[in-house]
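Dear support,

I submitted the protein below through the web form. The confirmation email said the job was done, but the results page showed an empty box. After a refresh the structure appeared. I'm attaching both so you can tell me whether what I see now is the final result or a partial one.
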Amino acid sequence: MTTSFPGLSIPADSEPMEARLASEIPAGEHWQFEPKWDGFRCLAFRGGDTLELFSKAGKPLARYFPEIAEALLGLAETRFVLDGELVLPHGTGLSFADLQLRLHPAASRIGRLARETPACLMLFDCLQLGSDVLASQALTERRRSLKRFFETASTPRLALSPVTQDRATAQDWFDRSGTALDGIVAKRIDEPYRPGERAMVKAKKQRTADCVVGGFRMDAKGERVGSLLLGLYDQDGRLNYVGYVSSFTDEDRAALPARLDPARGESPFTGKSPGGPSRWSRGRNTEWIPLRPELVIEVIYDQVTGERFRHGTSFLRWRDDKRPDQCTMDQLKHELRPAALKDLLEGKQ
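What the results page shows now:
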């Protein structure tokens, strides 16, 4: 049942505005640039004493972030719909891994984490404030209203994401997007909020790694190879499972059996291994076929969490010229200048 928020004109099942991926920050006029924060996208609805935080998929999040809910319920403004990112500051950056720990069934654990490592809602848009419905207004007007709202909200649980219309400044943020940022988002300053549409542009860091192919899974029908399981060696010589790749052209996928079948053997993972069925698998086939550690593949990835690729990777090429033992975990460590939260929020370059 959809939650009802008294006094709000924005439907509770509204989807956030989405972004399409680009390799570079767009050039030209009429763009506003913002940091792409590394957290959980969140729409915050409040109508009187009723409040909820919704994920990008429409799942309720308030119970997992009670400190954010408490802060929003303590504001003088009692009607709003805000768009932002739930983030968890850690050192000079953000910890996505710590953020994931909040999605736990035990209220006692959530409460303890909320006290010990409180999260923050990074605000970057608003759809309604009080009786003013802003979604149809241009971004410049929405940003002006959001800034006024933030200036009256004296709580450390809220932050206002910095913006710029200077591409050089945005490029500097992008270049130092080590631990705090996930890239740069560009929005048209003259456009309204477009729920569910890919009306923004996001430029993300894309990195490559050479990995051992330690096994594979068949697709749901069991008719062809669905994904390859990837491994990297740690400093103790153990091969750890670090993720998978499933993005192949039809031509590349058709050629997989000829490469994989000769390498079938015992499991090569001597460290962390691929898991079996879990409550997150949603019925997908989790059985996998092990391969001897003989094949090397180069993949493209974006983020790493807990020494694993956070998302599925993209196939780049086979590396027949590289030995498997050269595929090491240190490829995932990047000597980038961290994008310090304090500097970004104070507008320092």
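Response: this is the final, complete result; the empty box was a page-load delay. The longest strand covers residues 207-218.
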